[in-house]
Amino acid sequence: MEVLKVSANSQPKSVAGAMAAVLREDGAVEVQAVGAGAVNQTVKAIAVARGYVAPNGIDLICIPAFAKIDIDGEERTAIRFLLQPR
What is the 8-class DSSP label of residue 45? Predict the structure, then answer.
């Protein structure tokens, strides 16, 4: 499964397009965000992506979870969003 990483500077429409493309191709996508700004952009992108895949008959659901990731040798806590069709 492909993992998309979102930052606070990511554009929600661009992220939504990437989410929709991976979702259509692989059937599911994982998105990781570290920090409040990144989580905010991710949630906006998920809302936009639902609109992108709805015409294809896909009802997008999101399963959030915590994940430990390594950034420059330092362990950080990320929010992991698993997106898949219902």
Answer: H
Query: What digits encode the pLDDT tens for the residues 58-71?
Result: 999 999 999 998 88
Q: Which helix (H) or strand (E) holds 16?
A: helix 12-26
With b for 16 or more beta-carbon neighbours within 10 A and e for fewer, the 58-76 pattern comes to bebeeeeeeeeeeeeeeee
Global model pTM greater than 0.85: yes
Domains in the chain, CATH or no CATH each: 3-85 (3.30.110.20)
pLDDT in tens, 2-20: 899 999 999 999 999 999 9
- Which structure tokens are listed for 86? 């219902």
What lies within 8 Å, CB to CB, of 57 at 6+ separation is none
Residues written for the chain? 86
Instruction: Report the distance separating Cα 13 and Cα 52, nearest Å.
Output: 10
